[in-house]
Specification:
Serine Threonine Protein Phosphatase 5, Tetratricopeptide repeat, 5 helices
């Protein structure tokens, strides 16, 4: 019975996430970020990334979700997990992003690397 309940909850979670869409996941991430709930925010940003990719949204939107998740990881003391995410966000932004945006991501990447001790 317990296994069936957990399975139902997982299906319900996916269904609600699809209804809320990537905008809802990003909003949830930002709200949790403001409250200092970095783990929950990181999960929401990961959900947003998944939904953005699923809906073939522009790379810049995906990069936003990836970079925000990376930022949460640094705040959680998981900088080694953040570094590849920042690198991915920079690659996603590519040549289309404003130079200021790329500079900002590079600064955040440097911050994450400094937090790893390397």
């Amino acid at each position: 019975m317990h296994w069936t309940w957990n399975r139902l909850v997982v299906h319900l979670e996916h269904w609600l996430l699809n209804i809320a869409g990537p905008g809802g996941a990003l909003t949830a991430g930002y709200q949790n970020l403001k409250k200092g709930r970095y783990e929950t925010a990181a999960e929401a940003f990961a959900d947003a990334e998944l939904l953005l990719r699923k809906r073939n949204e522009p790379d810049s939107k995906i990069a936003e979700a990836v970079a925000l998740r990376a930022w949460c990881y640094v705040k959680l003391g998981r900088a080694s997990e953040a570094v590849p995410l920042y690198e991915q966000a920079i690659a996603l932004e590519g040549a289309v992003a404003a130079p200021e945006r790329i500079d900002q991501l590079r600064e955040q990447l440097a911050w994450a690397r400094s937090e790893t001790g390397s």
